[in-house]
Amino acid sequence: MGFLVMFCIALAVSAIGFHKFVWFISLGYGFSMVAIGVALLVMFAPGASADATVPLVMSALLVAYGLRLGGYLLVRERRSAAYNKVMKTQVNDGSGLGLPVQILVWGSCALLYACEAAPIYFRLANGTPADACAVVGAFIMVGGIVLESAADLQKTAQKRRNPHRFCDEGLFSFVRCPNYLGEVLTWTGVLVSGLTALAGPWQWLAAIGGYVAIVYVMFGGARRLELRQNRNYGSDPEYQAYVRRTPILLPFVPLYSVADCTWLKG
Fold first, then answer.
1. Which of 73, 139, 246, 253 has the greatest number of CB atoms lying within 10 Å of its CB?
2. 32-82: per-residue pLDDT in tens?
3. pLDDT digit string (tens) for 220-244?
4. pLDDT per residue over 142-184, tens digit each?
């Protein structure tokens, strides 16, 4: 029942995508996580035992994560002319999609958001005591949120100094998409936190499915960014050198391009 509540909450919040299609996966994503985190705190915090401390902290982290992401995307959309240009020319605005398809996208997004948060919910709902997996997962989640936040701040600062140059300083000198790496780490932490709490095939399916889906989306986003940067900077020798030496998403993993992976969508 609690999982259904999370799904319905995500449906309600992400419905803003019917006003602007991209909001299904941007503002709807961030603020759905805020609402899910608040719902978990309301459902489980009153009268909770010490064993619930870690997953309740992670529920609060969901709120912080969503507020940070949603706020960042909202400010960027309102202030960045370059971002709005990309949204208009390179991102599907949903205008060619019929209502049934939009409803399918809406429901799929809401289900994904509920599945991503599922390991936290299942640990609380199952009453599983805090253990090493919960603590390690929480720390990984914090690290992912910090990394993603720092990458977004660094990108904003670099683009403000030189809006026509690709970002290759700070975290971007280690991987070309550190913000997406932070996203992957965040949900890796959530999954790890639930590994010893999941019970039955349904709970495992929801948790693993949500994690695999968001990792796929992040690699798809990295591909979309790579294709756009290739168009914008492909003739720049400095950019070509940067691409050859800097992994696209995973540090120390010699994966430098996913441009040819046409099966990736994000």
1. 73
2. 999 999 999 999 999 888 889 999 999 999 999 999 999 999 888 877 655
3. 999 999 999 999 998 899 999 999 9
4. 999 999 999 999 999 999 999 989 999 999 999 999 999 999 9
Residue with tokens 């941007």: 26
Tell me, yes or no, whether 212 lies in a domain.
Answer: yes
CB 246 within 8 A of CB 171: no
- pLDDT, tens only, 207-216: 999 999 999 9
Range of the domain at 160: 2-245
Residue 262 in any domain: the answer is no
Q: Tell which residue, 128, 94, 121, has the closest CA to residue 7.
A: 121
Amino acid at 15: A
Yes or no: say if 152 and 179 are a contact pair by the CB < 8 Å rule.
Answer: yes
Position 202 in a domain? yes
Minimum mean pLDDT range among 56-65, 89-98, 129-138: 89-98
* pLDDT value, residue 92: 59
Number of domains in the chain: 1
Residue 111 lies in a domain: yes
CA gap 195, 211 in Å, rounded: 12
